[in-house]
Amino acid sequence: MAVFAVHFVYRWLVVSENRLLQTFNGWKICLWFSIPVWYGVTWVCTGYILCGPNENTSRFIKDNIKEVLGLEFNEYTYLGPFLYDKDENGTDVVYVAPFIGLGINSGTICSSIIIVLTFGILCYIRIKNIVVTTVNSLKMRSLQRQLFFALVIQTLVPFLLMHIPVALMFAFVFLDIDLGVYSAIVSMTIAIYPAVDPIPTLVIVENYRKTIIYWLCCCKKVAHVPGQTTIEPTRFATLPPSNLELDLEN
């Protein structure tokens, strides 16, 4: 998600011709690449320190994992927040550390959503103005319009496949609702996102679309093979009997 946020910042810097675009050249680009690294470190530390394995969580998931997946407790490891429990008297207990960890992870998701929305809208406005004010050829205006629609759809794809599924999963955890095997849907949607993301551009941009159709239809020119030789089969003819007679008497 952090990579996607940086991607949208870069898009806006390009279309707006901002001076900060120079920071993607030279050693300064390492600063941009470090942002996803810090997001990843935050998730790892939060998951391991605040949402790591403990006695209460192990007791809660042990029977459930065995029933659903058929795995014994010593056959897997886990990380995850366990927020609510009941003590021996039936009183509700809230575990603070996992609650804080889930809040931190939720904050990183929200920051990614805010960055994507903000710079996506800025790109939308900028490209729309370019399309309206462009006085170049009709081909250039058509290309700008295609890129404009591709940007809109590419903004929706990660929301449908990453942000919304993860946000819903976190919301169900906060509400103490067990999704069971349906929680695996989040992993599947995130996994297919890299394959789905370039499809809008490949379909909407005319040059890409025509090239794909060309190759799918196998419209290749047949190359002429020089020096081709044709061998005709040998034909045999029957000659008529000769009118000459051999005189053996002499």
UniProtKB/TrEMBL annotation:
InterPro entries: 7TM_GPCR_serpentine_rcpt_Str. GO terms for biological process: G protein-coupled receptor signaling pathway; olfactory behavior. GO terms for cellular component: plasma membrane. Keywords: Membrane, Transmembrane, Transmembrane helix. It holds the Pfam family 7TM_GPCR_Str. It comes from the Eukaryota. The chain crosses the membrane at residues 29-50, 99-127, 147-175, 181-205. This is Protein CBG06303.
